[in-house]
Amino acid sequence: MITETVWCLIKEGIQVEEIIVLTTEVGREAIISTLFADEKVWSQLANAVATDLRFAPSSYHIRLIPSEDGKGDLADIATTSDNQACADFFLKTLHQLTENTHGPLICSIAGGRKTMGTLMASCLTLVGRPQDRLCHVLVSEPFDNPRLDPPFYFPGCAPGHQLAGKTHSNTSAHLELIDVPFIKVHPYTRSDINDSGFSFMDLVKTRQTELDAHRLPHVTIGLFQDLQIDAAKITLSPQQHGLLLAELCACAAKTRPVDWLERLDWIKAVQITMRQQAENRRENDHNFFNIDPHNGNTDGLRTLGKTLRKTLDQQLSPHLSQQLFPSLRQKVPPYPPHRIACPDVKLT
């Protein structure tokens, strides 16, 4: 798939400066025997695209994946330790290339073991820059068939190809380079990779821990002091619970209050629902109903909001606390409705 990818890039108008292949011993032998043997496929490609392609059967251009113990190179990717060694080598190599060059790095996941392509994509997510690309090449039938004789490398590589007694002209071959979108977290991983002793798995665990800290969990809130964040139960006073309930009911309706008076309106709507269902509850459960500012004075409500935020900060991460009950001036978007389970309250 090396020749097909390079062909597509040249046809896109991309100036391919050099080609580097990360592979196993088996892969190296296959590349040398198919591209640099008597057929001289690589020379044919360079002539066909009229470009000086810097690629040779050298240890610089064809880089072998070292074994996990460092005592040799991998013949193939066959075990868990082989995959670990492959991931570490990919990450180290891509990091070096992205740190030492300013031009775009184009990574192809075509060819090789499926895990190799997957690991390449994962590593580029960790170190890729805005200008870097991840791609895959698609070749139309029957030119993608490994039984084709001679093999297909690029349009014009041979006068014709035999398959099942039929001759196929490669002038009808269609090659398409597919860009694979990927998330780039390079600015957050650079310092970790620069430290000695990093590994792919360590870096993945570190990034996942950081992402988990910002993940918005599922929130379940009832009418009377039953609040659960994922599997953890959160304790609030009746008044704090009622204030948060009004906020989350608004979020479930895909909105946030614009001021404290609007928060008060929603609290009143929640109070109506609570009273309707509180006939058989203890009197202590009705403490929330005492939130009733006179003449639109919301000072007491603001104070309650501060105590609610403080209580949430004590039991949750600051990020989550801010998402559940933010300061009005922060203009935080509504907590995702699909992450909330709350009573059906008609807000006014």
Question: What can you see in these coordinates?
Answer:
By secondary structure, this protein is of the alpha/beta class. The protein folds into two domains: 2-213, no CATH class; 216-341. Helix content is 42%, strand content 11%. It is built from eleven helices and eleven strands. It has helices at 2-12, 25-35, 41-49, 80-100, 114-127, 186-194, 200-214, 238-252, 260-277, 299-315, 318-324; strands at 21-23, 62-64, 106-108, 133-139, 161-163, 166-168, 175-179, 219-221, 227-229, 232-234, 340-341. Helix 4 (80-100) runs parallel beside helix 5 (114-127) and helix 8 (238-252) packs across helix 10 (299-315). The model is unreliable at 283-287 (pLDDT under 50).
Regarding quaternary structure, what we see is: single chain
Query: Helicity range of the residues?
Result: 40-55%
Number of helices: 11
User: What is the number of E strands?
Assistant: 11
Mean pLDDT: 85
Strand content: 5-15%
Shape descriptor: elongated
Distance between the termini: 62 Å
Q: How is the main sheet built?
A: 4 strands, mixed
**Coarse structural class:** alpha/beta
Give the low-confidence spans: 283-287
Tell me the count of domains. 2
Quick structural gist:
With 348 residues, the protein is of the alpha/beta class. The chain has helices at residues 2-12, 25-35, 41-49, 80-100, 114-127, 186-194, 200-214, 238-252, 260-277, 299-315, 318-324; strands at 21-23, 62-64, 106-108, 133-139, 161-163, 166-168, 175-179, 219-221, 227-229, 232-234, 340-341.
Any key phrases for this structure?
four-stranded mixed β-sheet, alpha/beta, 11% strand, 2 domains, 11 strands, three-stranded mixed β-sheet, 348 residues
